[in-house]
Amino acid sequence: MTRLSAIPGLPPLVACAGLLAVWELAARAYGISGLPPAHEALRELPAILTDKESLYNILASMKRMAVGFALALAFAIPAGLMMGRSRWVAAFFNPLLMIIYPVPKAALMPIIMLWLGVGDASKTLVIFLGVSLPVIYHSYQGARAVEEKMLWSAAAMGMGSRARLLRIVLPAALPEIMVGIRTGLVLALITMVTSEMIARKEGVGDILFNALAMAQYETVYATIIIIGALGFIIDAAFESLRRHLVAWSDPVHEIAVVGST
Amino acid sequence: MVAAGLLRERDTPPEMEVTLGSMIEIGRLSKTFDTARRTSHLALSDITLDVADGEFVSILGPSGCGKSTLLYIVGGFVSPSGGILKVKGAPVTGPGPDRGPVFQEFALFPWKTVLGNVMYGLVEQGRPRAEAEARARELIDLVHLKGYENFYPKELSGGMKQRVAIARTLAYRPSILLMDEPFGALDAHTRTGMQHELLEIWERDRKTVLFVTHSVEEAVFLSDRVVVLTRSPGRIKTIIDIKLPRPRRRAELLLNKRYQEYVVEIEKLMDNPGADE
Q1: Which residues of chain B have pLDDT under 70?
Q2: Which residues of A touch B169 (CB under 8 A)?
Q3: Which of A33, A50, B248, B274 gets the highest tally of CB atoms within 10 A of its CB?
Q4: Which residues are paired to B50 by β-bridges?
Q5: How far is it, in rounded angstroms, from Cα A238 to Cα A258?
Q6: Distance CA B145, CA B167 (A)
Q7: Residue B96 and residue A250: Cβ atoms within 8 Å?
Q8: 3-state secondary structure string, chain A?
Q9: Using CB atoms within 10 A of its CB, is residue B188 exposed (0-12), middle (13-18) or buried (19+)?
Q10: Which one has a higher pLDDT value, A104 or A165?
């Protein structure tokens, strides 16, 4: 057994196969229309992935996710670092952060739609909010934990405070920032789907909920599989990038995805 | 017994201690910290000390006496609450490359390799990369780390990290080395080795060194003068000239009568347990 589990990629494959088997058996045993057998949902996959309209929807979702995510990083990392290095900035933003963090971002969607409509802007903004909070929080924590003596060493070399923020605080906090970004990526995917569920115009979420409304349960489950696979691929790609970028650091604590949709 | 003639009392008028060749001038310096309960804590009081160019001065005292704070003030990292502080005749307003710190915590840049760390200050000061790298390699060699250029700090032992930190600071040629219990985190064996290496390096270019420690033996072994501070608030209790020949070797010194007397005398001054006969 130990030798088998040492093969990379085998345990997750076994876990997936197990889940599908349980699903298949449960579907056959109970015969509920809302729970089609696994093989029927899987059979829908090629149809969705070759359908032009579905692909367009998936790509539109991904585009919003990418834009919201990129904007969030551009805003949240500098904001978090400044909070971590300035007591005044932290005292000002921290209470706001603590209030906004636990609010489900999708719950803000109806209000945001009143301002920005049901188009890309609203959805991108919700994704932006979802990603920003964990990234700000971890950037803040990372910047706060930077050793004072490291900054002093840099100051003695003649580095000014802006140079230190960019070239000492940023790299020193990078392992912690990456933890926030990884959480942010998962939240980006979640808020992407939930925003489309509320503002039903296009996107992966729209395919899912249209299919649900029309009782096409195979499509519903197939879409859920696609979303799950997307999340898995994005996370795995990011994780390999992260390992590469912060190979110099001691392993950071295990990443727990905590957040709200 | 012997120390009576060696002690220089604190109540020497400050004017008499100021000489033209002094690298660091500290006059009636004090530091007060504000604590959480709106009370203030006097950490350093009435510190007057002159350090000559090329002198190796240790600051010795019980933990919490403010000896590190004094060093941080000279470094410009912490501002004093009162008094005068001049380096090469100019008042200190902040950190600067003329004063290179070495900390107990090493404070290396973990995302940089050994070479990257040692080069950092020079590159930061706008020197050409090739020149910075050549100088860094020279220093890495000096601290016996040849072959470790591409290692990251996390891959090094404590003693090696401190060697990197010393090389990183020496690289940008500060006139003054500010060493804050640099060997405090090292095991006894490594510590002794590092003390020797430091002396070897110091013998070469005779930089001014301000060295904070709580080890009496370390202070006596390394220094020209030992400044003993009192416990909270830190005041100068005594300044002792260490008239031991250089270059110094630990094995010889341990058998040296004067060395032993210095150690015992200072231990008594610090009220260390077991120092009384």
Answers
A1: 1-20, 272-277
A2: 153, 156
A3: B248
A4: B25
A5: 17
A6: 10
A7: no
A8: CHHHHCCCCHHHHHHHHHHHHHHHHHHHHHCCCCCCCHHHHHHHHHHHHHCHHHHHHHHHHHHHHHHHHHHHHHHHHHHHHHHHHCHHHHHHHHHHHHHHCCCCHHHHHHHHHHHHCCCHHHHHHHHHHHHHHHHHHHHHHHHHCCCHHHHHHHHHCCCCHHHHHHHHHHHHHHHHHHHHHHHHHHHHHHHHHHHHHHCCCCCHHHHHHHHHHCCCHHHHHHHHHHHHHHHHHHHHHHHHHHHHHCCCCCCCCCCCCCCCC
A9: exposed
A10: A165
CA angle A256, A240, A61 (to 5 degrees): 75
Q: How far is B155 from chain A (nearest CA, A)?
A: 9
Residues 6 or more apart whose Cβ sits within 8 Å of residue B265: B2, B3, B6, B240
CB A178 within 8 A of CB A140: no
The verdict on whether omega for the bond into residue B247 sits within 30 degrees of 0, i.e. cis, is yes
Q: Cα torsion for A130, A205, A23, A219, to the nearest 10°?
A: -170
Torsion of CA B68, B71, B75, B81, to 10 degrees: 90
Kindly tell me if the per-residue pLDDT of A3 is higher than 80: no
| CA-closest candidate to residue A196, choices A102, A128, A134, A126 | A126
Bridge partners, residue B30, by sequence: B82
Dihedral sign for Cα atoms in the order A187, A190, A196, A199: negative
* ipTM confidence: 0.89
Contacts of A154 in chain B (CB under 8 A): 124
Query: What are the CA-CA distances from residue B234 to residues B15, B24, B77, B228, B266 (Å)?
Result: 21, 19, 18, 9, 16
The token pair that represents B83 in the structure block: 């008094």
Distance CA A20, CA A23 (A): 5
Whole-structure pTM value: 0.86
Contact B99, B90 (CB under 8 A): no
